Amino acid sequence: MNNFYKAGKELPIAKRHPSSKQTRWKRSIAFLDNTMSVPIIQITILVILYLLVSMFSLSAQTPRKDSGADGLSIKHLKIGDTIPQVLWDLKLDVVGHPAGAKQMTLRDYKNSELIILDFWATYCTSCIAAFPSLSKLGKDFGNELKILSISHQDAASIQKFIDRSEYLKENNLDKSFYSVVNDTILAKYFGRSTIPFNVVIDKKGKVRALTTPDELTADRLAMMIADNNANPILPRKSTIDGPLLNSITGEAKDIYYSAILPYDSTLPVTVKKKVDSLRQIKHMVFPNWGLKRLFAYLIHHQSPRKQNIASIPSRRIIEADPQSEEFLSVFDTNGKYSRVTYESVSPMLAPDSTIFDKMKIDLSLLSGMIASYQKRAIPCIVLTVSNHKLLPINKSGLTYSRLVRNGLSDGDGTGEGRFRQRVKSKDKRSKSFMSNYSMKDILYAFNQSLEVNFPFMIDETDFQGKLDLRLPDKLDDLGELQVEFANQGLKLNLEQRELDVIVLTSNSFKSTNKPLKLTSDGYVYVIGKEIAQ
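^ that's the sequence the OP posted. Answer follows.
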């Protein structure tokens, strides 16, 4: 075809375009023709100005990679590195300093053999729990060791903690504890991603350890002081990038396994569950978990229920002799070395059900027990309304729920106040109470968070509001709780109900008619006249 048509009319085919070289030459001539009247010097000035503006704009938008401030990238320091000079002289805001100082530097501690940087936050219970042991190390080593607490939180939040923390008072730390506040720089330099986190630096500025408080023992620190090259604390991994058995499996492609590994202090605390499309694997790691926790995870994900009952003792029955090795392997969790790391490497397309079936076999081989959901009749506390007029409808004015036990609360409704503190209250209620609590909150408290050995509580009140409930001083006394609730229009009935429970059964278990007793581990069988605890 040689013709195009538009609206019934024949159109001629366009003529061939000139070559690209001809086009560029003609455009150049046209440009010169149009600009001959413009002085050359003006064009030159305009081009120079354009280039200068472009260069300035580029430099303003492109940060220097070696900079360490203003949000620019910082190279993470590793064990063996020497901290840059800027860190020695970095002005650090501090609150609570016994000498009243508002700022300090790391150089203030440079005469000490070792400096421990302790990264923490007011909402980190394990951070706060480590304060007494760290303080003792500081006292035992004297001037050879200095400990500096460091928080990213603001001065007001940390000052509130120092003023109100009951834990500091109980451990005689309220007059001596102080902390760096508003930190962003130190955390970036040392690659802190979780807390608690500790950095050990020697007097020459060499990074000697990146670890956690439980690894900082007196003998290890003494070894580091005596020998400048000693590294008794294994470096802590910030992430788990691939299978832990990489040294055996290489890239782990087409090599699949599950393993129960011993406690490893170098592993991060974060659970890893990832589909690795590059290696074509599913990778799961549960670092340093107790067997009880592993069983709870397994049963909940292998056979999901609307309600997660895996961690509720009153919904758990243990069919094993409480003195047996099987029982102790799961429930005797004293000390970190009773924990293990479970790892699974599976084909990427393997169904989760297959992975959990394998995990069930592995845990059974290790502990001698198997876990399953079963329907069982168990004692329950049924909560009903006996007198609507007596219900203590919430009038606290709080925007959050508060639980107070013997005058102490675990928070004040803010993210910066999640620590045990004495409640300043003007009302004359009992020392223990719940403010602004829904029925759902009440059930969660008694079934899980309060750690009282009560049968499972069920709500049959149909009450949808919030209550301000008085609680007895002896919160673990069911009789006193029933009396206190009755005075507030609520009734607690003890009844048998058939519910889903988790049953952990020993491979050697034989059925028995002995009665069950509720303990902090779950329901266990009575042995003779004694109750196994």
